[in-house]
Amino acid sequence: MRDISKKVCMALLILVLSTGCAYLRETVMPAIETRRDLALARELSDRGEFGKAEEEYQSIIKRYHDSPLTGDALYELSLLYISPKNKKKDFRKAYDGFQSFLERYPQHRKAEISRHFIVVLKKVESVELEMKELKDVLIKLEMMEKELKK
Fold first, then answer.
1. Does residue 51 surpass a pLDDT of 70?
2. Closest Cα partner for 34 from 67, 77, 74, 80?
3. How far apart are CA 150 and CA 147, in angstroms?
4. Which of 9, 54, 88, 121 pairs with 46 at a CA distance of 20 to 30 A?
């Protein structure tokens, strides 16, 4: 009887340990890795290494797509595209990023501000289009002026 209870206890111990390891491997470790990678992306962004930061954010989004922290990465990537320090701003990518963020994380703590960014970015796009049209008109007027001087 004693041998059987020792075997049962040993089997239970092995089961608990193996289940615990799987839990760590599937939940705790990805969260730790995501936090580490997110910190690296933020550091790269702070140093002005926007290309490398963009790659790191995109990598986080691909690798840890189920992590709640992936929402932070997608939001911060969108901000990266409109950073005043970023010489390669891309308002379209920022807009698309905030849209994607809201689709995937509508209840995220940054969802409301993302909605405001989208409104502003739509206005920026509208103003840019208007500026392009005005430049085209200006070019035509300059050409007409040259013709009149002849």
1. yes
2. 67
3. 5
4. 121
CA distances from 33 to 74, 80, 94, 121 (A): 16, 21, 25, 32
Q: What is the DSSP letter of 89?
A: -
Q: How many residues does the chain have?
A: 150
- What is the rounded distance in angstroms from the CA atom of residue 117 to the CA atom of residue 48? 22
52-60: long-range pairs with CB below 8 Å, 24+: 53/80, 54/80, 60/34
Give the closest residue to 96 by CA, choosing from 126, 127, 122, 64.
Answer: 122
Find the helix or strand (DSSP H, E) in which 87 lies: none
What gap in Å lies between CA 22 and CA 84, rounded to an integer?
Answer: 44
pLDDT value, residue 66: 77
- Does the pLDDT at position 22 exceed 60? no
Give me the phi and psi of 19, to 5 degrees please: -70, -40
Supply the mean pLDDT for the chain: 85
Alpha carbon separation from 11 to 24, 32, 98 (Å, rounded): 20, 30, 50
Helix/strand/coil for 37: helix
